[in-house]
Amino acid sequence: MRKIQPRLLLISCILLRSISGIFSSRSVILSSIEIFNTHELLSPKPIIYFQCHGEKKIILPDVKEKHIVYKFKGVESWQPLAELPDKKCKRCGLYESDSVKSDDIFDEWELCPDEFLDGNCIHYKEKEFNSTFTCTECITIIGAAKPSPKADSPNKKLNLAMAILLGVLTILLVAVGTFGMYKYWQRGGEGTAPSKIP
Ligand SMILES: *[C@@H]1O[C@H](CO)[C@@H](O)[C@H](O)[C@H]1NC(C)=O
After folding, report:
1. Residues 134 and 151 in one domain
2. Please, are residues 130 and 148 in contact by the beta-carbon 8 Å criterion?
3. Is the same domain home to 139 and 154?
């Protein structure tokens, strides 16, 4: 029995890890987009869509005008844009439907879970578009893997300041106490000394 328990623990750990790996997909939502360019000259209303390699097209129904920042809450009917597997990237892109030739590409890039610092990720391409994506489930991986040093240092500074303050306070208390004892002893000495002389 004693030998089985650690092994059982190990097995259940591995099992739990793989289960969480299977079920924890990370939803990526589009939080904002601004396009700087459209590629279809004849059609005034472009059909813009997002697509990850091998997955279905997601048409952004509202994005029609250049130089307007479209903001989304993430609950729109076409969201989320994609699901990211654990620690793996997906090749995705932003495209515009073309009625004559093949669809135009705004950009194609790797959408990776570790690029969502604070849960957000900006993808900008010069003269094409600027977009922000959100993946709240992606933060937890980063937070668990490596605590950010930025959040750590102010805490350490605060702790150091607290330690110094406590030290100073302790010294002050000891000094006041010692001084009081000394004064008391002095007065006591003055008080008892004359009474013994006569
Ligand atoms: C892209 O959008 C983000 C979020 O709206 C903004 O902070 C950033 O300045 C923009 N960048 C450019 C080059 O427009």
Report:
1. no
2. no
3. no
Residues 29 and 59 grouped into a single domain = yes
Protein residue closest via CA to atom 11 of ligand 1: 130
For 52-93, how does the pLDDT look when each residue is reduced to its tens digit (9 = 90+)? Answer: 999 999 999 999 999 999 999 999 999 999 999 888 899 999
Per-residue pLDDT tens digits for 130-146: 999 999 888 754 445 54
Cα(70)–Cα(132) distance, rounded to whole angstroms? 10
Cis peptide before 80 (omega within 30 of 0): yes
Has this prediction a pTM greater than 0.70? no
Range of the domain at 161: 147-176
What pLDDT, on a 0 to 100 scale, did the predictor assign at position 181? Answer: 87
| 100 C-alpha to ligand 1 centroid (Å) | 32
Give residue ranges with CB within 6 A of ligand 1.
32, 122, 124, 130, 132
Q: Give the whole-angstrom CA distance, residue 18 versus residue 104.
A: 39
- As for how many domains the chain has, the answer is 2
